[in-house]
Amino acid sequence: MDLQYVPGPDDQDVKILCNSIKQSNGAQTMTMTMLVAHFTVGCRSGFMCMTFYRRDGHVIELQTGSAVSRPEEACSPPHFLQHSMPFLTLV
Question: Which pLDDT tens digit goes with each residue over 26-36?
């Protein structure tokens, strides 16, 4: 039997693009980068703040803020509260 993936009604295309880099520490260590990303999910789009932390050679942690309509609001409170946001670990 040949199995093939068939997209359902809940499937949506997701696209995330860097809009601007807000903060990055030293070019040699590159352990943290904060950026404003433009995202598109299905027919909806907006901006969000994303902070990436390099923890090890193959481990990155990520924090994402809430969706906003203007890029200048993305990394400011109450849309991005760095000390209270959960981390997503990527390996």
Answer: 665 678 999 99
